[in-house]
Specification:
The chain is an alpha/beta fold and 388 residues long. It has two domains: 191 residues, Response regulator (Rossmann fold, 3-Layer(aba) Sandwich); 142 residues, Response regulator (Rossmann fold, 3-Layer(aba) Sandwich), CATH 3.40.50.2300. It has 13 helices and 15 strands. The strands form three sheets. A seven-stranded mixed β-sheet has the order 7-6-8-9-10-14-15, sandwiched between helices. The longest helix is centred in the first third of the chain and has 23 residues. The relative contact order is 0.13.
């Protein structure tokens, strides 16, 4: 009898071990004690003004999640490499995050071109990437693991042009494009099409290159064009210098553009030349906040002793939307929670309300128009967008 009992116990123990091994060989992501998220953004270099606040927003979201018990009862860990705004760096970082760090999702990059590099790697490895800034075309088309949480140019520009014509009566527009900047070359045709569609006249088209500093020739031509407004589709550094040259030549004109102008150094570089003269659209403002945004502002200011911006808000929301999808599915496996992400409707984020269309493209509301006032971003107007 004792021998038979020993055999039974041995068989039972073997069965328990076998079941444990089978379970352990199941979903590796769900068996992890820590859920890892990889940050994509520049902390040094020309676009660090986008990545640094984004990192802060992501860290704050993760800290809040962990204070509430994490995701699915597991601690959330962020990994923060600096891609320096370089495509080779982001390629290496994305591969490291996936193969070595075993992240379940990557959050970022703010720039379209860099996002596409990392998105291709994420899609091939079936890991979610959630950009908190890429606005250009051809991002989510890379595959069904690719998402973004930002005010799309194709959504914002029609609203902005309508405001330009009806509220400001700017009917004659000049356009300057930065020809070696993918963001700028993608945004210009969207503005051109919408300006023509809504009956505006384009009186001048000109070009610059990123990192140029002498815009005297462009402003001289602009002075002779009799334009009501300058549409500049590039980044904040060149915008500030363009407006300084306009001021130098005595040209009184407003410059309007996209969220590429949203850099904390815009005011510092442009001084009084950009004060209430540069207007940009984006999906975030610290003025007239929603209850969700007001709470975010309070916590962010307390944590960092500074003002948040669009990128800190969008990175924060991206992390929280990812957490919601994992909790809803009970899984940290990207193959499982990616489908829940695609179902997001009217998410009340700190960077505005977010919904995903059937093609996973975000529709955000409202569109915020911002300018520089007293050296800081200030609200010009707030325009709702239909999210259905």
């Amino acid at each position: 009898m004792r021998f038979k009992n020993k055999v039974r116990w041995a068989l039972l123990l073997s069965l328990v071990l076998l079941v444990t091994m089978v379970v352990g060989c199941g979903n590796k992501q769900d068996s992890e004690e820590v859920i890892k998220l990889g940050f994509l953004g520049a902390k040094t270099g020309d676009v660090a003004n986008y990545g640094i606040p984004g990192e802060k927003g992501m860290k704050m979201a993760i800290d809040e999640l962990n204070a509430q018990g994490g995701i699915l009862g597991k601690k959330v860990e962020g990994i923060y490499e600096d891609n320096k705004g370089d495509s080779k760096e982001i390629n290496l970082i994305a591969q490291k995050y996936i193969t070595r760090d075993k992240v379940v999702a990557m959050v970022g990059d703010p720039c379209t071109g860099l996002t596409k590099v990392a998105a291709d790697i994420a899609q091939k490895n079936q890991v979610v990437i959630f950009s908190a800034g890429a606005t250009g075309a051809g991002v989510v088309e890379i595959g069904n693991y690719v998402f973004r949480n930002t005010m799309l140019d194709t959504v914002a520009v029609p609203v902005v042009v309508d405001w330009m014509l009806k509220d400001k009566h700017w009917k004659k527009a000049a356009i300057i494009t930065s020809i070696d900047n993918g963001y700028s070359t993608a945004l210009t045709p969207i503005f051109k099409e919408e300006l023509k569609k809504q009956g505006a006249t384009i009186v001048l088209e000109d070009t610059i290159k990123d990192k140029e500093t002498d815009f005297s020739a462009q402003i001289t031509k602009l002075k002779g064009a009799n334009a009501d407004v300058l549409v500049f589709t590039g980044y904040y550094t060149e915008a500030a210098l363009i407006m300084k040259e306009a001021q130098k030549q005595g040209l009184n004109i407003s410059l309007i553009g996209g969220d590429g102008l949203y850099g904390q150094d815009l005011a510092k570089l442009g001084g009084d030349a950009v004060e209430e003269k540069v207007i940009l659209y984006c999906g975030f403002s610290t003025d007239q906040p929603s209850p969700e945004t007001a709470k975010f502002l309070e916590n962010y200011r307390k944590k960092y002793n500074e003002e948040p911006d669009m990128f800190s808000a969008q990175y924060y929301d991206a992390v929280m939307i990812l957490a919601q999808a994992m909790e809803a599915t009970g899984s940290s496996d990207p193959k499982v929670f990616k489908d829940e992400l695609a179902k997001v409707k009217n998410y009340p984020g700190v960077s505005g309300q977010t919904s995903f269309r059937a093609d996973r493209e975000p529709i955000k509301s409202p569109v915020f128009l911002l300018t520089i006032k007293d050296g800081a971003f200030a609200l010009v107007d707030k325009i709702p967008v239909k999210t259905e």
